Amino acid sequence: MFEPRQIANEERLNGRQHTVVVIMNLMLLVELTVCMYLGQQDPDTLTLFFLKTFLPVAGATLVGARMLVRRLGNTPGNRAAQ
Questions:
Q1: In this structure, are residues 69 and 17 in contact, taking their beta carbons and an 8 Å threshold?
Q2: Which of 14, 20, 35, 63 is a Cys-bridge partner for 54, taking CB atoms 3.0 to 4.6 Å apart?
Q3: Within-domain flag for 3
Q4: How many domains does the chain have?
Q5: Domain that holds residue 34
C-alpha cells in the first residue's frame, strides 16, 4: 500500500552530515537531561523552568545543526571531489 520514497544518491546525507546529526541528537539528549535535573530542584516551578530553558536551547541546537547540514551538503563542485 505505502512504499517508502526512493532517495537519489545525490540527495542522501554524506558522512560529515551524518556526524552533525548524531552530535545534534546527543546534544539534545544532554540538554533535556540537564534541564530536567535542574528543574526538579524546585518542583513547583518545574514546568516554567523547563519551558524557559529547554525550548530556547533546543531551538538554537536545531537551527545550528540545520545550518551545518546544509553547509556541509553536496554541491556540484563538492560532488566531484568525493
A1: yes
A2: 35
A3: no
A4: 1
A5: 23-73
